[in-house]
Structure formats: structure tokens, C-alpha cells
Amino acid sequence: MKVIKEHQSWFSLGIIWAGAVISIPSLLVGNTLITGMGLSKALLVTLAGYSIIVVLMILQGIQSTDLGRPTVQVAAQVFGKKGSRTILSIILAIACLGWFGIQANVCGAALANLLAVSGMDIPVPLASLICGLIMVTSAVYGVKVLRVISYIAVPLLVGISVYGLIEALTGDSLHIIQNYKPAGAMSFTDGLAVTLGSFALGAVIAGDYSQFSRQRSDVLKAALFGIIPAGLLMIGAGAVLTIAYQTSDITATFLSITTPFIGGVVLILATWKTNLVNAISGGIALINVFNVSKEKEKWAVGIAGTIGTVLAVIGILNYFTPIMSILSAMIPPVAGVMIAAYWVLGKGDKNRWHEVDGVNILGVVSWLVGALIACTPVVLSFFPSLPQVPNQPLIGIVISFAVYYVGYRVSAQKTVILEEN
Questions:
Q1: Structure pTM?
Q2: How far, in Å, CA of 414 to CA of 411, rounded?
Q3: Which one, of 98, 97, 92, lies nearest residue 289 by Cα?
């Protein structure tokens, strides 16, 4: 009996990717960019950053479309089966735990501000703890809760963001926006690092969603029409609303757009929706990293969410920029190695792809070298007394690409020489 593979249209794939971009983190990126640069420069950085993300998504996504496999299986060629599962799971766990903490922190600030309007004052760390624990508890119940909250949160978030934009661009705030001068001085490359870091993981694991596409062009269309418009809308909204309401606090901005109650509820629901994904994905990643049984998934989800909650309590939101810079350094080099193997060495031919058992040392070392070099400027920034290095967010992917390509060529040449002798 012939098994018919279920395909998805490029439009449905684009909607999935657009939905991932329509989130509080995208607003936070706009909020962060606009505090250090003008609006036109912030939008240019956004366009550049998401254009790079789209290129990575297309190259990564097509690999999975060609092979009909998710990212972790496609990466088994360059990292080995065990190496791929471990490396991608570690990166996913780190990203999910960090994002959980940031979102719970935003939610906690929203809850504290909302209660303050009602005359009840509680510290943001305590509110973040309460929000985090509620999110963890609901995440344990899995996808059913996520689906319900998503249906409510996404339309509300888009609605209030668009409403706020219209109010800002047609009201008295327009003059403020036109004459805005940033308080800080963020470089273009630093802004690019923040933008890339906000969706770098989504670009690398694009194949998890594109593996069911019919053809390569579907991935291209979905990435172009799903990512760039949604990214510009949300990051642009975060930037414009920050100027219009003259505050770098995204929670204060939302409480001012309509009423404190409506803004606070939308913010809480939006962060809750995203953190359910972070907790569930983080739990699965921990299972893979520590090789524990699938039956303990609920425990893993609970642990992942609890760690994220602790990060929220200690105020991880205050370190948003360096966290995005670290993610933009660690994650893209994975794509650099995979692109070198599939598109350059393999010439984009799926018949040249093959899995490698265990760990492929060349792939792991190539990724690690690129990631460590790219992370150096971020780490040095924590120690102002040491010599500083300019942040170059694309250097990691270039170095990992080059190390893998050269290493593969050298090893292949040695193999030929040995065979001839």
C-alpha cells in the first residue's frame, strides 16, 4: 500500500513563521534598537537583520524539504547522529530557558504595574515569580492549553500593536516621532546582533517546519512573505511606540495604549503563550541533552520552566542586549557548517547527503570555533577594563563555514593520498 506524504502549502508555512515573529520579543527588539539609534536606522537594521535570517531560513529549510527530515536529522551529516542531537538540544535548551526568563520578567512587570493601578503594590521579582510558576504549571498540561491561549493572545497582540501605531502616527505623537533623537549610541553591527539573536534559532531550525513542503520555491516564498513583513511590523511597532509614549519600558507602553487593564491583560496573555512553547521545547531539549526517558517529559518541562522562572526573578530582562548578542554568536555557526556541507561540498544534491554515526568531530569543532570567536566581543564587554573588540555578528557563521570546508577538503585529500599509497 502506497503511503501518501501530507504536504503543506507555502502560505500555511508562511503563517506559521509569521506567527513566531509576532511576539513580545520582537517588540522588545524594537524597544532596544530605538534607545540607541534613530527610527530610520532602526528600521534599516531590522530589514538587514531579517533579510539575513530569511537567507539562512531558505538555505536551511530547503535541505529539510529535499530530504523530508527535521533539522536534527539533517544535521546528522555534519555533527553525527549523537553530536547533532546533543549540540542542537543544548542550544535549544539555553535559548528556551533564557527566553522563558525574559518573558516571565516582562509578564511580572506587567502584573506589578497592573496591580499598582489598582492600589496594590508588589515587587516585580515577586510578580515574575508568580507569573513564572503559573506558566510552568500550565505548560505541564501541554499543547491543549497552548492552543487555547494562542487563539486569544495573537489577535489581541496584533490588534493592540496596530492600534497603538495608528494612534501614534495620526495623533500628537507624530511630531515627537519626527523629531526623535536617541539617548544612546548603538552601532549598526550591535543592532544587527540584537536583531539576528531574536530569531537566529528559528532560522537554524527552519527545516522542522519546512520538511513537509512540496518544493524548494515554497520555502522561499514562505520565508520572504512570512518573516520580513511581520518582522518589520512588530519591531517597527516596538520602536515607534517607545518614542510615542516616551518610555523604554515596554510594559508601561502597553498600559498606556488603551487602558491599563486591557494593555496589561494582552501583555500577560502574549508572554504566557510564548512561554508555554519555551517550557515545552526546553523540556524536550533537556530530555535529549541528558538522555532521559520520554516518560519524564512533564518533569523536564517543569524543571525547564522553574529554571526560567529563577532567571526572571533575578531580572534577566536587564541583560536583554547581551543575551541577544550571545544567541546571535552561538546559533548561526550551526547553519554555517550545514550550508558548507550541503550547498557547497554537496552542491545542493540530496543524493550526496548521508548520516554519520556517533559524533562528527570536524563539524563539532567547526561550529565551536566559530561560536567562541563570535562570542568574544560579547564576553569582553562585561569587562570594560580589558581591550574591547567590535561586535561582528556574522563572523561566527563565516568562520564555521570556512573551517568545515577547509577541514573537509584536507581530510578528503589525505584519504586520496592514503588510498594511492
A1: 0.86
A2: 5
A3: 92
